[in-house]
Predict the structure.
Amino acid sequence: MSTERHEQLQDCLQVVEFFAETMDENDRTLIQIAHENLDVQRLQTIPGIGYLSGLMLVAELGDITRFKSARHVASYVGLVPRLYASADTTRLGRITKQGPGHLRRILVQDAWVAVRVSKAFRQKYNSILKRKGKKTAIVAIARMMAEIVYHVLKDKTEFDEKKMTLG
């Protein structure tokens, strides 16, 4: 290998190392912030939600009392069906996708984890899966998680899987 290429490679490796160190430092900072925030700690009791998801939810939702109900949180995130209504006919469509897309995506990713690690979430997912399919089922779990987030933050309690209704 020529000396010039070797120097270019060394420069590139230094840049990669710099960014890796910066990311590690940012991760440590975020973990510290998450450990100091009681709301994030409460959210982490919900299966599938980690420190980064918890931080995003707390930052994006802000003061939870601004929402009247858990349904309003699900609507804010865009995880509710679109309503088509005309005269006596009403039909529900796909989700609205209103609100912050990154929050919707993180909730769907968290829902996949919740389905893997929690028996209650897995049962609910399998129940919906039989009727509606994989994508609809996981979005329903994500919506359920958004509503659980509302209750955890509003009531300032930890999530209790035993209280989860599977209806």
